[in-house]
Amino acid sequence: MPPSVPKNKNKGCLKGCLISFLVVTGSFIFLCVAAAILVPDSNSTNYKKANRLYEKGNYNQALKLIDKTIKKDSINPEYHFLKGMILSELQDTITSEKEIAKAENFSNTDSIRQIVYKKIINWRIQKNDTTEAEKLLQYFLKPLDNHNFKNYTDSYYYVANIKAILGKPEQSRTVLASFIDSIQKLKNDTINFKHTHYQISKKLLTLKDTIQSIAVLKKLIQEYPNTALAHKNLGDIYFTTKSNVKAIQYFKKYIALDTSDASIYRKIGQSYLNLRKKKSAKKHLRIATKKGDSEACNELRELTAKTKYYPQSKCCDGTTSSSTGRGTCSHHGGVCGTEYIPYKEYTIHCN
To answer: With 60 as the cut, is the pLDDT of residue 330 above it?
Structure first.
């Protein structure tokens, strides 16, 4: 029987210590990760608390808390902006403007800058400081970069809206017109190019600039003659303004490209009615009715109704009687004539 080999106690201890170390280290890492996930960022929490205090009018408490927040993160633009607003309420205008300037300077990316600048602009408008608001507004009128259509479009919409809010509709219209001119070189981006023209046209209508709205759609048609929606939108503008001939013209161009919209046939029919062309009106109202347009059906129903009359006896004392036989008006001095009452006989029934 071979002699037994003595166990290496040091080796066993080393192995056990290593396992214990790994377990402790792993637990520590887990706790750190869990803490990072479960415990909210104290700076973010303090900022939110300071903002709530500001909104409630507790300016001194809000200032103390935002100062504490800035000490931990001195380059966050939103922190400086909040401090600037608080100081403005505390009548410290000079320091307030310095903080607002820091907020602008620390906005070092386009995405952050847009968020912060919009907040500053809205705040200045609320404070009736429209001059400074408009200065900052110029940032959003930058040239188109990297063909980022959405960002570029949103920027111009924002400027146009602010100009309208400030009571400067003419400037708002000018901004939109210059925007349309600036994107003509991007007409190969068909979807965005067309969508932008539709949106600008609608926006110009809200600004009561029908002429420019029409011009935008016509400019689109020059580039894309078979754009159905552009013809439809033009037809709608002319229809609304009672320009019946032009409404019919553009609606017909639309249905030559797309026959699915029953309301367009109805509007053509209504335009013909305004021009006293009943035959053409009936034709298009009938098509709209077949396509399921209930309004067109009701209009066609009235248009095709036949006028008929029923007789009614006129009594000598001025009263009338639906009776025409013997004894009519016997208690009213007898019959002194007959009048005929019109009524409509409908040949079309609508749901």
So the answer is: yes
- DSSP element (H, E) containing 262: helix 262-274
Helix/strand/coil for 330: coil
Q: Kindly state the tokens that stand for 316.
A: 């000598």
Alpha carbons within 13 angstroms on the beta-carbon side of residue 165 total: 16
Q: What is the pLDDT of residues 309-320, one digit of tens each?
A: 778 888 888 888
DSSP-based three-state secondary structure for 343: strand
- Out of 45-59, 187-201, 308-322, pick the least confident: 308-322
Conformation bin of residue 146: beta by default, left when phi > 0, alpha when psi is -120 to 50: left
Determine contact, residues 221/227, Cβ cutoff 8 Å: yes
Dihedral of alpha carbons 52, 58, 63, 65, sign: negative
CB 300 within 8 A of CB 286: yes
Contact call for residues 312 and 322 (beta carbons, < 8 A): yes
pLDDT digits (tens, 9 = 90+) for 57-71: 999 999 999 999 999
What local confidence, expressed as pLDDT, does residue 145 receive?
A: 62
Which of 113, 51, 129 is CA-nearest to residue 77? 113
Cα 159 to chain center, whole Å? Answer: 15
Contact between 288 and 319 (Cβ < 8 Å): no
Is 209 a residue whose pLDDT tops 50?
yes
Dihedral Cα 44, 45, 46, 49, nearest 10 deg: 120
On the question of pLDDT at 5 being above 90, the answer is: no
Confidence of residue 27 (pLDDT cuts 50, 70, 90): low
Nearest to 62 by CA among 52, 74, 77, 76: 52
Structure tokens at 260: 């699915």
Residue 197's pLDDT band, with cuts at 50, 70 and 90, is very high
**Cα–Cα distances in Å, from 328 out to 310, 311, 340, 342?**
16, 13, 16, 21
Distance between CA atoms of residues 158 and 33, nearest Å: 41
162 and 121 in contact (C-beta within 8 Å)? yes
